[in-house]
Design a protein that fits this description.
- This protein is mainly α.
- Helices cover 79% and strands 0% of the residues.
- Helix 1 runs antiparallel to helix 2.
Amino acid sequence: MAKHPFVNPANQLTFCRIIFIPLLVIVYYSHFEWRFLASAALFGLAGITDALDGYIARKYEITSAFGAFLDPVADKLMVAVALALLIESHGSWVFTLPAIVIICREIVISALREWMAELGKRASVAVSSIGKIKTTFQITAIVVLLAFAPNTYQIFNTIGLVALYGAAILTIWSMCLYIKAAWPTLVGSE
């Protein structure tokens, strides 16, 4: 008899990331003075669980199909929700543009990976080192931007915005690499 997927500690950490999503929204919109730092801490903790669940799954050889599905979903949901909160609170096209680029890229790449997996070619669109660097920029940007109210501590908002633009540029670059890898299959020239 197969074990339930939630018995797996790596999957439990991934599921915690999903539970953090409504908690992030509640904390961010609360009226507590510390809401911005608490939101940043929650998002940072989610980032730590992302690294930790993969490490645990590999180290203890407890990878699962459920975990392979849930992990990227949890990541994308957390990032999209955090960016949506920040788009609303910053209310500026200068901020909205890179956030939309990041969200749209995630949708495109998720669809591409799913389609390639159906064809048995998912390995050709596996995560690249550019994608990992992009994720680092993205997490840094979101943590910094969540930590401070939009109209305060301008230096931190500027650092966060610069990191967000860096993530958006790397997002476009990594998307181009994924599409290039999948292009022969996309145009049927294989």
